[in-house]
Amino acid sequence: MAGIHFHLIDGISPGYGYTGIIIATLAGLNPFGVALAALFIGLIDTGAQTVSRALGVPAYLGDVVQATLLLVALAMLVLQNYRIRRVRALPQEE
To answer: In terms of Cα–Cα distance, which of 42, 26, 46 is closest to 34?
Structure first.
């Protein structure tokens, strides 16, 4: 990473690692799902840039949508694994 400068350069990575985490989470670590999730995230990025140029909306709106998708996916995983179940009480014997 440091290369010939011998120090870390700010902004050397465009954030593909974080995008990869979002894609893998949305895909449920499924190889076929990764392709669909990557296409979906790519459409969100491209759409956010296009809307930013056409309407003057901030381009970071796409990042907000991606963050919301990640939080919803994580919440669904948590709720799926730690589902609260109602247990019926057993009749008491006298």
So the answer is: 26
